[in-house]
Specification:
Helix content: 40-55%
Strand order of the largest sheet: 1-2
Structural class: mainly alpha
Radius of gyration: 38 Å
CATH architecture of one domain: Orthogonal Bundle
Shape: globular
Number of helices: 10
Number of strands: 4
Length: 270
């Protein structure tokens, strides 16, 4: 091979190498530019299921509180399952029983007007829902009388229970008739019942029936929704009566009573 042929072959080899370098450069640039068009891998979406029930009841049959004030059939913000025919029937019976045509007197409104200003601030101080102020109306009609079983005062304390919660009973002294002191005792008792049952409705029922009997009923029936339980006649109607009492106090005209005006709040002294 002469010198001319060698030079020509070297030139061709170099040209091929240059072309390969150019092609390689173009491919690299194309790959880099294509990165902007690559779609990111979508991250999986995780959904958190909402709780089925609130702390009011453990059953799905309870309903949310009605926001219409005219039909606020609730106790301590725990609503009735009024779509249940049996529940609705018992509610209507209690409303009828507490209407003016049946009671024939405004004594309940007058007593409430006199004593609620004493009871309400004490309930608030102990973190007890205000609806518990209707308990004395149902328990004793706010007359402070003594029952055949020995319960006395507006909160109808038995002597032993009264002493347990700090009231003096005996030796000529009976603080069950003291509105302020007995309300404080009642708040202590009700708060303990709420801690035990985790429901203000059940706490109210246990106030009437006793916590031991309520515990047994819950275990026996495997049910902790008051409105769906089978209880003795008095306790079974107890919370319905509280709700009915609430209705006739806040809406007396609707149930045949003459409306009344609430005066400025009285000092909570007794």
């Amino acid at each position: 091979m002469n010198k001319k042929e060698m030079t020509k072959k070297h030139f061709i080899t170099c040209s091929v190498m240059v072309v390969l370098v150019i092609i390689s450069t173009l491919n690299i640039s194309s790959v880099k530019g294509s990165k902007t068009d690559v779609q990111p891998i979508a991250k999986p979406v995780v959904y958190t299921a909402a709780p089925l029930f609130n702390n009011t009841f453990s059953t799905a049959k309870s309903v949310l509180k009605n926001t219409d004030a005219a039909d606020d059939y609730s106790f301590a913000n725990e609503a009735l399952p009024i779509n249940d025919a049996g529940v609705n029937r018992r509610l209507q019976q209690s409303l009828h029983k507490h209407g003016f045509r049946f009671v024939g007197s405004n004594i309940l409104q007058m007593k409430a007007l006199e004593l609620f200003p004493i009871i309400e601030p004490i309930l608030k101080a102990y973190g007890i829902p205000e609806d518990f102020k209707y308990v004395p109306l149902v328990e004793s009609g706010l007359d402070g009388g003594i029952s055949s079983k020995g319960a006395k005062g507006i909160w109808q304390f038995m002597p032993g229970t009264a002493r347990t919660y700090g009231l003096k009973v005996g030796h000529g002294v009976d603080e069950r008739t003291n509105v302020r002191k007995s309300t404080i005792a009642a708040c202590k008792y009700i708060k303990e019942l709420y801690v035990e049952f985790n429901s203000w409705t059940l706490a109210a029922a246990a106030y009437n029936n006793g916590e031991i009997k309520m515990e047994k009923a819950i275990r026996r029936q495997n049910e902790d929704n008051y409105f769906l339980m089978h209880l003795n006649k008095e306790t079974a109607s107890y919370v319905y009566n509280l709700i009915a009492m609430k209705q006739i106090i806040i809406q007396p005209g609707r149930y045949g009573y003459r409306s009344y005006l609430k005066p400025p709040e009285l000092l909570a002294f007794n």
